[in-house]
Amino acid sequence: MPRKTNLSIKEYTLKNGEKRYYFKISLGQNSNGKRIVTTRRGFKTYAEADQVYNQLARVKADDFVKQNQITINELYKIWFEGHKNVVKESSASLEPGLYKNHIEPYFGNQFINKIVVADLQKCADKTAIENDKKTKKQLEFFS
């Protein structure tokens, strides 16, 4: 059994009698001066909790984002910064328009953890119906 040298990791017991581990870690202050503190719980072993604790200890406060604090718009901005360096300039110039027209109206300001599969399916269905109407109009124009 490993020595429990990290005093931030605490043990607790579930109602069914199983033991779990949790910790609270301060990541310091971000660039706005706000103190960033996070809690993680539910680890089955001390070693598992210690490993995650050490990973979080290396994260800078400005780089830490809780999943429920990031919106689709913010995620898109982060993704696009890396994506535009990987694709051709012509492809990268099309991406913002596609995002703005097709994704942002449905999901733009929603938090990632609040979007469920049913929401994605509704968006896909609505987009398919709109595209079908456009295709029919185009066919009528050329007939």
List keywords for this structure.
143 residues, alpha+beta, 2 domains, three-stranded antiparallel sheet
Structural account:
- A three-stranded antiparallel beta sheet has the order 1-2-3, with helices on one face.
- It starts with 8 loop residues before the first strand and ends with a helix.
- The chain is an alpha+beta fold and 143 residues long.
- It has helices at 46-57, 72-83, 89-107, 117-142, and strands at residues 9-13, 19-29, 35-43.
- The protein folds into two domains: 9-64, no CATH class; 69-142, no CATH class.
- The chain is elongated.
Note the topology.
Blueprint lengths: L8 E5 L5 E11 L5 E9 L2 H12 L14 H12 L5 H19 L9 H26 L1
Antiparallel strand pairs: 1-2, 2-3
Helix pairs in contact: 2-3
Global morphology? elongated
- In helices, the fraction of residues equals 40-55%
Tell me the β content.
15-25%
The CA-CA distance between the termini, in Å, is 78 Å
Number of domains: 2
Question: How would you write the strand order of the largest sheet?
Answer: 1-2-3
**Quantity of strands, as a count:** 3
Number of helices: 4
Multimerization state: single chain
Describe the sheet with the most strands: 3 strands, antiparallel
